[in-house]
Amino acid sequence: MEDKNKYIEKFDAYFESRLNDEDKLAFEEQLKNEDFKGSYDSYILARNAVKLEGRKKLLEKINSIGDNINQSEHTKTIKITTMKDQQKKQSKSWIGIAAGFAILLAAGAWFMTQTNSTNPEELFANNYKAESNLTAKYMDEIATSGFASGNPADTASAESIIDPLALEAMAKEEARQNQLVNSLNKFKKGNWAEARKSLNTYMDTYPEPIDDQQVAQYFFGKSCLNMSDYAVAADYIGKVVVSNPNDKDLLNAAKYDLASTYIMVDKSQAIKYFEDIAGDNGHPNMQDAKGILEGLK
Amino acid sequence: MYSENEIRFGVKKEDEKILAQLYAEVYPKVEQMLLKNGGKTDDAKDIFQEAFVVLIENLRENKFKGDSKVSTYLFSISKYKWYNLNKKNKNVSLDLMKESKNWEASEEIIESSYDEKTLTKLKVAMSELSEECRKLLVENYYLNKDMKELAEAMDYSYAFIRVKKNRCMNTLKKKLNS
Asked: Does residue A2 have a pLDDT over 80?
């Protein structure tokens, strides 16, 4: 029995490409033996039987999800009415107990996901937010700075209207701001690929002013991150952190997203950046960083 | 709204919320594509659900590393499966044929590698295993769960669960050879 068990582990290692070159060659040499080859062939057959069983279970799960979606489409109205009726019947104390229990469960789940996970993908997915509350802030700031919407002449002084060079400069500035607002709008709508393309054009065309270039770099990096392009994301968000923007909100967000990006590409860098955040009392994600560090170390 | 990374991770882990969102987003498009290419609603459901299985397997085995969105990939697998099933059907458009050729290598089709008799034998042999053996083999081999994690979940020592898995495999092999 022991020999047979060893065979299975050997077969597993070969089938899953875990053997080094030398052991792989030795295994393939053994396959020339008919008995050994026969045993390996029936192992492959057995693995396929397992795979079929796994697929069957997965298909049942997907089928049930599909059925639930169809059913919920058809019975949405009925369900809402029934739930309201049930809610009326329930006493306040039960609601209180259930709410308390739900809070405990949620807190427990949060604690588990925030601190206990050591899987980089899981840590990243649990802690990274694709959206940014800075999008609306910058769109508002740029849009209200004079040009991003409306006619430039509406906000121009009497002298500048007369001067054609000033008007041309204003038109260029309007185009620049519109380009940035449009790019941020694409990001806000979750069109990462379009936002990335549009921000790339903006960065190439308008290296100045530096404050808006930093905003563009940050959202370009974040779009890359949302498309799982971690290396490029680290490069661009890193540029924002290194340039130390005057806007503290931007700097804090960039530091946190850079640390999150490094979870996927370079654990030691991730630890370094999260330690920096965890030691910064003024950083809004200080507590999150402490939890993530426990998972990373 | 989930990020692409959250969707990839959620699909891999079979997160029901994310699977349901993806289903609701992509299924109507697949149904429309099939109806335009000679299919019926029932075909669409079968094709889409099988494509969903391929998507999960490919994500789990890191076979899908492309830049395209998970929803686009799922739609493309569905297209490929429909094309593959109807290669000789004139109702299938030329565009569909061209696009689907890019996805030919994306699926390992056990079902077409064996004859009906062998497939039945595989299914029967699995059904004759104990519930515990079936669970252990599926979780380790199909869901790629770590043996240490499984030992903990099933309340066995790591050494014992390895022996148990090997015994289950040997029993399955015996049943297949009988």
From this structure: no
Determine, for residues A50 and B6 on separate chains, whether the beta-carbon distance falls below 8 Å: no
Residue B3 pLDDT = 87
CATH classification code of A128-265? 1.25.40
Residue from B100, B108, B111 nearest B75 by CA? B100
Q: Which domains does chain B have, with CATH numbers?
A: 4-104 (1.10.1740.10), 116-177 (1.10.10.10)
Cβ-nearest to A54 among B6, B19, B143 = B143
Residue B149 has pLDDT above 90, yes or no: yes
Q: Is B73 on the interface with A (CB under 8 A)?
A: no
The DSSP annotation for A24-46 comes to: HHHHHHHTTSHHHHHHHHHHHHH
Cβ <8 Å between B53 and A59: yes
Residue boundaries of the structural domains of chain A: 2-74, 128-265
Q: Which residues of B touch A48 (CB under 8 A)?
A: 110, 113-114, 122
Residue type, A15: F
